[in-house]
Design brief:
This protein is an all-alpha fold. It is built from six helices and no strands. The protein is 70% helix and 0% strand.
Length: 158
């Protein structure tokens, strides 16, 4: 897999997460951030998937998606689940579940069990990565101060 392929897949993930967000009535002004969340998750997963196991790549990318969701939540004044749910959609092990059902229907017991275990590991990695970032206090994401729109400019003469 080349770097250009990873960039293309991340772009497709961006568009897919926007489509998912539109389907579930996310606010229009937040759609770009929902797409960015999914693109970040898939980019990190695909890049790390070249070097480490899929479970660890899923765990680390879930941590990054959740961190971005919390950061965007703080700065955009919206619930973090608005960015988090579309962001983890590309990481959901749909292919593994499909392969599990295919193997089960074909009567291949060992392949069915191995796919079940892989699916549980990937789902657990998504959950664990999310919990690692959700356990941090909200003030941790105040790294960059938020701009206050209601703040009036100070007059030079006081």
């Amino acid at each position: 897999m080349t770097f250009l392929t990873i960039i293309f897949e991340s772009l497709m993930s961006f568009l897919a997460c926007i489509a998912f967000s539109v389907l579930y009535n996310a606010p229009k002004k937040e759609l770009i951030y929902c797409g960015i969340s999914g693109a970040i998750g898939w980019f990190i997963y695909a890049l790390l998937g070249l070097y480490i196991s899929p479970t660890m790549a899923t765990l680390i990318s879930a941590v990054f998606v959740t961190a971005f969701s919390r950061f965007a939540s703080y700065h955009r004044q919206a619930p973090s689940t608005l960015y988090h749910i579309p962001g983890i959609m590309p990481l959901v092990p749909g292919t593994v579940v499909y392969n599990t059902m295919t193997a089960a229907l074909a009567g291949m017991i060992l392949e069915t069990y191995s796919n079940i275990l892989l699916g549980l590991k990937l789902a657990g990695a998504i959950g664990a990565g999310s919990i690692l970032m959700l356990a941090l206090p909200y003030s941790f994401f105040e790294i960059i101060p938020r701009k206050n729109k209601n703040q009036k400019k100070a007059s030079p003469i006081q």
